[in-house]
Amino acid sequence: MHYIEIVIRPLSDWMTPWQADTLFGHLAWSIRYEEGEQALKEWFDAYDEGGEPPIILSDGFVGRWLPRPMLPPVRRPDKPLLELEEAIEAKKRKSLRWIDRDALIQGRYDDLDSLSDKGEPRESVVHHNVISRYSHRSLNEDGLYAVEQYGLPEEETTISIYARVKDDRELERLKFHMERAGLVGFGKRKSVGMGRFEVEEYIARDAWFNRPDADAHMWLSHGVPAPHDPVHGCYRIDTKYGKLGDGLATSGNPFKRPFTRLVPGSVFTGSNAHRNWSGRMLQNLAPAHPEVVQYAFALTLPLTVGEDRLAQMDFRFAGGF
């Protein structure tokens, strides 16, 4: 078993969020093209419920930032009120969604100085011309349209993806197809250069995930719990409106049915340390292609949150994004 950090350096802006299911889709298409249809089928079969998943991916995170864990507040003993300036600063930081990963690994979940908004990608709106098919010039009316794209914020140069890999064979497969995906591009508009990246390095992170003292675990991916996954915790949800990719993107109906999923930062009780993953594959989401499966597994990071917080984490819902 390997736990690794894949450090990538974007070579262009991107239009699709770095989410685990999209990353998995790029790996799957690369396996289909490079290894063949039968190899892809055997790979998917290994994800059947009850089996040992070959590769579990996290979402991609900017630099050293990880999602702030969704935890109930610690009950504090009576103490003097904060000074006004301290209270204002604490309120500002309370809404920040990102935490320095060193603080997270060390269990400093309430360290205000380790919270930031620097984990958010830089957003920009780019305008393009609409070209007339008759004159081959831009239209005089309604001749512009806008698209959103993303890049790295200032001072950040990399994105990190974390992975649980079953064995050496799957590790080599992951490296090969991840590097191939960087050449092709990630997400929307990769045909015009969006989403290109290069893999900078692979870093072993076994110590982060082998935590015998853990009493909870945090999701590092968007995903859907399996029936046997823990249910006591703090979490947020969103709805995914997916589309088919690559070779199926131009099929008659490329749209998938929407589904609800948990977001990174969701925390559940129980260490989950015997495997460090949750979630499952979803089926029957693509009406035009019933054979298509939806990756909804999540890599989970062990945490030690303490008895006080564990006692409060009973079917808590932290609200939606």
- How many strands appear in the DSSP assignment? 17
| Helix content bin | 10-25%
- Kindly report the oligomeric state of this protein: single chain
Instruction: Please state the CA-atom Rg, rounded to the nearest Å.
Output: 21 Å
Tell me the strand order in the biggest sheet: 15-16-10-14-11-17
Number of helices: 7
* Amino- and carboxy-terminal Cα gap: 34 Å
Tell me the count of domains: 1
Please state roughly what percent of the residues sit in beta strands, choosing from under 5%, 5-15%, 15-25%, 25-35%, 35-45% or over 45%.
Answer: 25-35%
Reported for the largest beta sheet, the result is: 6 strands, mixed
Question: Quick summary of this structure?
Answer:
By secondary structure, the chain is an alpha+beta fold. It has helices spanning 20-35, 37-45, 84-94, 101-105, 168-184, 206-209, 307-312, and strands spanning 2-10, 55-62, 65-67, 98-100, 115-116, 122-129, 144-151, 159-165, 197-204, 216-219, 233-235, 237-240, 259-262, 267-269, 277-283, 293-303, 316-317.
